[in-house]
Amino acid sequence: MVSHLIKPQELSLEQWQIILRKQIAQEGGFRIENKGEHPVFSTFMVTNRTTKGVYRVVISGEKLGMNYCSCPDFAINTLGTCKHIEYVLRKLRGNKENRQILKQGFTPEYSCVTLKYGHERKIAFFPGAKASPTVKVLAGQCFDKEGFLTRWGFDNFDSFVAQGNSLNEDIYYHEDAMMFVAGIRDIKSRKERIDKIFSEGVNDKNIDKLLKMDLYPFQKEGVLFALNAGRCLLADDMGLGKTVQAIAVSELMAHCFGIEKVLIICPTSLKHQWQKEIEKFSDKKVVVVQKLLSRFSKFMQAVEKVADNLPQKSEQPSDAEIKQVNKIEEESLEEVQDEISSVKNEMGASPDENVFNNETIKNLLEIGSNFLKDLSNQLSNKNQLLKEAKTSTDSPIVVRKDSVTGRKILQISLPEDKTMENIAKLAGTFLNMLKPVGK
Q1: 111-116 and 122-126 beta bridge pairing
Q2: What is the pLDDT of residues 309-348, one digit of tens each?
Q3: Whole-angstrom Cα Rg for the chain
Q4: pTM value?
Q5: CA dist., res. 211 & res. 383, Å (int)
Q6: Which of 124, 333, 393, 407 has the maximal Cβ count within 10 Å?
Q7: Counting beta carbons within 10 angstroms of the beta carbon of residue 325, is it exposed (0 to 12), middle (13 to 18) or buried (19 or more)?
């Protein structure tokens, strides 16, 4: 077994990662279902028995990069495989007939254009078993001898598709292959437009008009680099103006490509810093998304505050302890109710300025109110419950310590209890809230 933490010196990074995925496949834990007609070269649904996640695996051969999986790991690892693909191949090799079919290789009945995954992704053409000489000649104009799309082929891919469609035989184009071609062509088109607008590079006067300040030459280089790359990591040292460069890139994207909205994801402590910098260096309006999420934390803080101050089940609570807990509960409930009232007032005063869908907020407040009502009803009965706990070992209220974090956790078990159901609804509502609506 190869270590998951330390790479063996005799292996490259890619070899090590591939072996790790094969080891996971050997451990099992998956269930597969063949959704196609062919016993080997087909589409399989792979289910993780633990997480219940389901992924689509397409098997086209044994070589790396020939197969496809819909899992996130396969999309970004540049290995050309993943644990789901390796598990399916392992199961197929367990059958003698399937092993022989795999060795013979995949020859589809129809010609197809697919994407080969790996360290370098390539568009590949596979002629079908009944492919006509005309199709093979047509493919030879855009694909090299190994079947991979050439640089010239990218520029003339539309012509290849159009001529292929005019023939009286099927050519299947895989969706991921078409998206890859479109992405490469978008990059080329973007670069040509940038070179035309900023023909003088970092010395172009158009860059100086972006912000309310002048950028340093190295910052201009970073801005143009990010704009050309589309996706990149600005890794300048602290204090060299990465924030300003990011703002400049956003301004360029708006100017060159009509981008209207930009989402900035950052730590909570930096939200207002970003707002200050954007308003300082540009004329763009900034909306800080934060208020309703802080309301949600108030709900959870109220529950935790109650739990942390309840005596342990094995302890004998005194009347003074009960009064102290009651006081904390009342303060917590009042605090949350004040927060709800604040949100309601904000909605009534300026609903257009709210960054979330108002109907969603109303649903949230209704669910939150129900949660508080249920919690309040349960807490109002707690005095009697705690007194009963002195003589009973089956108290509906239990305070236990989490074995991992060591934190106290409040467990309430009463007839027709809806608290957890409302908490679940509340959390689900927040997942649907991140849908900004403009003014």
Answers
A1: antiparallel
A2: 554 444 555 666 666 666 665 665 565 556 555 555 544 4
A3: 30
A4: 0.54
A5: 63
A6: 124
A7: buried
